[in-house]
Design goal:
6 domains, membrane, 34% helix, alpha+beta, 7-stranded mixed β-sheet, Immunoglobulin-like, 5-stranded antiparallel β-sheet, TPR repeat, single chain, signal, 40 strands
Length: 875
């Protein structure tokens, strides 16, 4: 019911407004000082006016009036009849003086007491008399052309003129040009109109009336009837003196022709009219166009005038792979139609399409007032928080005579993760997209056994233990070579051989004497015991049979470090044997006593002559080798001996198995923070990051695991799985095949394993060198030589592989992109560079150079550019 009442009230209000009675005044805008003119008040509406009042004022003389009139019109549309009435009140006035005057307002009262008013009007009174003014256009030939002889048309009676709202402008500043026709004749029509082409200007036709209407206008104190033929908006496109070509028009004019013969008072009734054609044209017009001042900002978009800028997104909520637009609006007054699109720097990975431009201008101003809308369609390819930098747009302010820079933004927005892009969708510029791996693939499980961890950067090769071990091996080989040389020399020395074998011969004879002792053979026992003593001392001291005497034996024993008491006891034992051989049997006890004395004396002499140097050297060599083996370990194993590290590892393994990824990562990170590292630790950390879908960090730690141990198969497999989850797919430039084979062979073992293998092959080479140097057989020497060469080559290859991996580890020239979207520039600058391509998180790059916070990077396919160091993390 309320809605119905509202509709009824609205209908009545509409009818009341449509039927409202109004009053207006119609008066010429220019009159001559001696000219009578009409002032007509027109009342339109259905109500009859009452009490119409008007005073003509003191500036005009009332000649006649008022004359009242009424007319009614009836319209029937679709069977509906409507009628309206018009009431007129006409006065004839005459000016009293020249100047600008105001016609006072008239008032009238309607039914119900409502009062209406016409409003005031302005009239210009010029000094030129009425006879010089033209008659109203469209009147018959009764009007006379003033200032001309009958049958001719003067240039003052009919001419055409261009007017400009300004003469001195700058490039891009709009100028309004109006083409008017001025006449004081009776024009019947127009022919052959030619308008200028406006060379050097951008032009827009604002007004081109089809029905030409003349209005009175004061031109240099003369009254003309003028009409606008064309109106243009001109915008100069170049500087200098620009000339506008003339416009031309042929006017068809009716003129009076006076009959031949004398002049009669009846001539005016019998004058004839004829039609003539008069060509009129404008004068060439020159505009002074100045160039824009130098030093225009880089954001200058060609605007000249006064403008404002705004920017906004077409959507409040954005999703990946869904289209959106950035709408930039520039509005104001000036050369709106010629404004260029502002430069917008979209974040990388925004797929931007062609800009759409729409214009909303006031047609009456020829496009010099309004707005221009630039729509930048784009599709976000990555989720996260992004920001479109502030949009700067500069224009030249005509009034201030300087460049003004406007700023809109920055525009911050958030992109939610949407559905995956269809396979037919466009590809991000600069980098191709790769599909996700099949669903039945997953990373390998973590390493659960506590690994041997070392301090960061600790390698076996070139360590102090490695050098000591090599030195010990070389020294041992040299000692062995000297020992074998000495043995060979001894074998060639007969006297020395006898000396060295003296104890053995003595032991053999003593053993035989012992047998005789057991058999209680008295004479045979002492003979064999005498031979053992004499033979031992003769061989040991190299005493010939001719020089053998007891005094000689005692003296030489003393000279070789044997105590005199022991030497005397030895000589006395020889005397006892000689005496017993020729004396009666002294019994078994005496034989036993002499036998034991001989064994003791010979052992004592042997010990005193040899000394203890050999045993001391042997123990020292063993200590050196043991120390070298202890120093050869690359680092102390912390994990196996530190209970705190063991507890952290076991806790992290337990948390991982329970799916508590954050706690597992915290424990693993604590181990790494203690300064320890191992390939298994890094691989496990990569697994945790993979489970929480932080693929860039997962790839980072898999790469660190492989950098420490390239032979770690689990880390390499998991790296392949994680790499399938990132967006960029880089096709690497093929590597030289021999280098590729060498790299594959190098990655079979880790650096420490190759270091130990180098030691093994070096030991084998030393052994083969000894065989070559000491062997007396040709076949053995040949085998030793070639085996030594092969062993040295293998040892060098193992050393090269170990150093190769160590160098790769120490070289910090590889990094992983950690920012979701990163732009790669042509130079180390954000302002004076261009975007070459974009990279997404997880992509591996190689660092070539650095300048401040910028890094010169290269991809596996050879492309290069500059990135911020904050966008990446070193492996």
């Amino acid at each position: 019911m309320k809605k119905l009442l509202l509709l009824i009230c609205l209908a009545f209000y509409t009818l009341a407004v449509s039927a409202q009675t109004t009053m207006r005044v119609d008066v010429p805008n220019v009159v001559a000082a001696d000219e009578q003119f009409n002032v007509t008040f027109i009342i339109e509406g259905d109500e009859n006016p009452k009490d119409f009042t008007w005073s003509h004022g003191d500036d005009f003389q009332l000649v006649w009036g008022p004359q009242q009139g009424r007319s009614t019109s009836v319209q029937i549309i679709n069977g509906k009849r409507t009628s309206s009435s018009q009431f007129t009140y006409t006065y004839i006035l005459m000016p009293k003086k020249t100047g600008e005057f105001t016609i006072p307002a008239a008032t009238a009262r309607l039914k119900g007491g409502r009062q209406i008013s016409s409003g005031t009007a302005s009239v210009e009174v010029v000094a030129n008399n009425a006879s010089s003014s033209a008659s109203s256009p469209g009147q018959g030939g009764g009007s006379r052309q003033s200032g001309t002889s009958v049958g001719t048309i003067s240039d003052n009676d009919l001419f055409m003129r261009f007017t400009f709202d300004r003469k001195n402008v700058v490039v891009g500043e709009p100028v309004t040009a109006t083409l008017k026709l001025y006449q004081r004749v009776n024009i019947a029509g127009f022919e052959d109109a030619r308008f200028p082409s406006f060379n050097g200007f951008w032009s827009q036709e604002v007004e081109a009336p089809t029905n030409i209407e003349f209005q009175r206008e004061n031109v240099d104190g003369n009254i003309y009837y003028s009409a606008v033929l064309r109106k243009y908006v001109l915008i100069p496109q170049q500087s200098g003196q620009l000339t506008i070509d003339p416009a031309e028009l042929v006017c068809v004019v009716n003129i009076r022709v006076t009959p031949s013969g004398g002049v009669s008072i009846f001539d005016s009734f019998f004058e004839d009219q004829r039609t003539v054609r008069k060509r009129v044209m404008t004068e060439p017009y020159t505009l002074n166009v100045s160039p824009l001042p130098a030093g225009a900002p880089a954001s200058f978009g060609g605007g000249v005038g006064k403008f404002s800028i705004s920017a906004a997104l077409s959507k409040d909520s954005l999703m990946t792979h869904e289209a959106a637009s950035l709408v930039v609006t520039i509005k104001g007054k000036g050369n709106v139609s010629l404004l260029e699109a502002p430069k917008v720097s979209f974040p990388p990975d925004m797929e931007v399409y062609d800009t759409k431009v729409s214009e909303k201008t006031d047609k009456g101003t020829g496009g010099t007032s309004g707005s221009k809308v630039y729509e930048f369609p784009f599709i976000p390819r990555s989720h996260g928080d992004f920001e479109i930098p502030a949009i700067r747009y500069s224009y030249y302010d005509i009034n201030a005579r300087k460049y003004v820079t406007l700023t809109a933004g920055p525009v911050k927005y958030h992109v939610e993760k949407g559905k995956e892009e269809p396979s037919s969708a466009g590809i991000v510029q600069g980098v191709s997209r790769s599909g996700v791996k099949s669903l039945n693939e997953d990373i390998r499980y973590i390493a659960t056994k506590i690994p041997a961890m070392s301090a960061k950067g600790d390698f076996f090769v070139l360590s102090s233990g490695w050098w000591i071990l090599l030195a010990v091996l070389a020294a041992s080989a040299f000692i062995l070579w000297l020992a074998f040389r000495r043995i060979a020399a001894r074998r060639a020395d007969i006297v020395g051989t006898r000396t060295r074998k003296a104890s053995k011969m003595a032991v053999r004879r003593l053993r035989q004497a012992g047998e005789f002792l057991k058999q209680n053979l008295y004479t045979a026992f002492y003979e064999e015991l005498h031979k053992a003593l004499v033979g031992y001392v003769s061989d040991k001291l190299n005493i010939s049979v001719a020089d053998f005497s007891k005094d000689t034996v005692a003296r030489q024993l003393s000279d070789n470090g044997v105590p005199q008491e022991l030497a005397a006891e030895f000589v006395g034992l020889i005397d006892a044997c000689e005496f017993a051989r020729y004396s009666p049997d002294a019994g078994h006890d005496a034989m036993e006593a002499h036998y034991q004395t001989a064994v003791r004396v010979i052992s004592s002499i042997e010990s005193d002559m040899k000394g203890k140097k050999t045993s001391g050297k042997g123990r020292s060599g063993m200590l050196v080798i043991a120390f070298a083996l202890m120093m050869s370990a690359p680092a102390v194993c912390h994990a196996a001996g530190d209970p705190y590290i063991d507890s952290l590892w076991n806790s992290a393994t337990s948390m991982y198995s329970q799916g508590q990824w954050d706690l597992a990562l915290k424990d693993y990170s604590s181990i790494a923070a203690a300064g320890l590292e191992s390939a298994a630790l890094y691989c496990n950390m990569g697994n945790v990051y993979f489970k929480i879908e932080d693929y860039p960090h997962a790839i980072l730690y898999y790469e660190r695991a492989l950098k420490l141990d390239p032979s770690y198969a689990d880390a390499r497999y998991n790296l392949g799985i994680a790499s399938g989850q990132i967006q960029d797919r880089i096709d690497a430039v093929p590597e030289f095949i021999l280098k590729s084979w060498a790299r594959d062979l190098c990655y079979v073992l880790d650096s420490d394993a190759w270091g130990w293998l180098c030691i093994v092959f070096f030991s084998l080479a030393l052994a083969m060198l000894l065989l070559f140097l000491l062997s007396g057989r040709l076949g053995a020497r040949r085998t030793g030589f070639f085996t030594m060469i092969v062993s040295l080559l293998l040892s060098g290859m193992a050393l090269w592989f170990s150093l190769w991996q160590k160098s790769d580890y120490e070289r910090a020239d590889s990094a992983i992109v950690m920012r979701p979207v990163s732009s790669v520039k042509s130079s180390p600058s954000s302002e004076s560079s261009t975007d070459l391509f974009i990279l997404h998180e997880g992509t591996k790059v190689t660092i070539l150079d650095e300048v401040g916070e910028w890094r010169n990077i290269t991809l596996a396919d050879g492309r290069q550019g500059w990135m911020l160091s904050s966008d990446m993390e070193i492996i």
